[in-house]
Amino acid sequence: MKVVLTRGDLLKGISTVQSAVASKNTMPILANVLLEARDKKLELVATDLDMGIRCSVQAEVVDKGSITINAKKLSDIVRELPEASVDLEIDDNHKMILVCQKSSFKIHGLPKDDFPILPEVKKDKVFKVKGPLLQEMIHKTIFAVSTDETRYVLNGVFFQAEGGKLRMVATDGHRLAFIQKKMEGKTDEKCSVIIPTKTLNELSKAISDVGKGKEDEITVEITATDNQIKFVVEGVEIVSRLIEGQFPNYEQVIPKESDKKLEASTADLAAATRRVAILTSEKSNSIRYQVKGTKLTISSKTPDMGEAKEEMDVNYKGEEIGIAYNAKYVLDVLKNVGTEAVNIELTQPLSPGILRPKGDADYLCVIMPMRV
């Protein structure tokens, strides 16, 4: 193998796939990135066996070939190189010779033969979704995913396409985030899968990286089977295993009716919540919201720290009510609302509440109250 390409293109390719490199070296070759030169391009692949990423960068291919190189060492080297042309060549002993201006490196590699092949995902169900739309749906749900490994089925986002609508739902048992959007084009396919958090984070990153300056033009092609999913966005391919199991019936968690409705400034509510939360303990992080008439009182009280209280004006319909929430859960929602005002729907002090962006019926978050 012998190729010539720019330092910028090589670094871009490494950065794109590096997140898929295995963090635990159960197999030494999984710490490597596969480089394969062909058809005027250098293809890069990395995988941890659960997720794999493939991309290509422009290159002058003098001789075709392949090699796997330690991803971290290669990345560290390329980041320190000057912005210039880079020559890559493989010798007979599986060493990669890298030359850039006056710098040269010889890096031990391993042959392609032992590198895992990314699985081919059969095109059973194929969808096309606008990149910015999918990225928005990811951001507005992924924060509610559970990190408890004993609740494996909740360690991802439920992805459902049905009836011309695309839905994404995440929950950790204490809160739930739900968003749905209309699908464009072919909408008769049905799909219900659970996508791991890491995969969605990498997809969001890929959309951002390839969409700079042309966000509205980016389309993501999604191919799903019963146990695999593939995303293709502008030449970047992400293949991932799905989480097996039955996602909870999220519709049962969402309260159907509410007799207490509050409207508040998103920014003001977030700022007040942050200030009052300063005097909470890391263990409980509980703050109380008391609403009466047009006044919302936010307070916290921790025996070994002190207490805090703040009032703000709101629009409210209903009887006086006090309810306690985990401050972090409230702030996570307010950070993703995306509107100047937020609507909060309540029923009883120990019943879940709903937070929605004002004027947006397609997004909501449910938060379970805390006992105080």
Based on the model shown, name its key terms.
9-stranded antiparallel β-sheet; 372 residues; elongated; 26 strands; DNA Polymerase III, Chain A, domain 2; 13-stranded antiparallel β-sheet; 18% helix; 3 domains; alpha+beta
Describe the structure.
The structure is a single chain. The chain is of the alpha+beta class and 372 residues long. The chain has three domains: 2-114, Roll (DNA Polymerase III, Chain A, domain 2), CATH 3.10.150.10; 125-250, Roll (DNA Polymerase III, Chain A, domain 2); 255-367, Roll (DNA Polymerase III, Chain A, domain 2), CATH 3.10.150.10. It has six helices and 26 strands. Strand 24 and strand 25 (353-357) form a beta hairpin. Helix 1 packs antiparallel against helix 2, helix 3 crosses helix 4 (197-210) and helix 5 (266-277) packs antiparallel against helix 6 (327-336). The N and C termini lie far apart (67 Å). The model has no long low-confidence stretch (mean pLDDT 93).
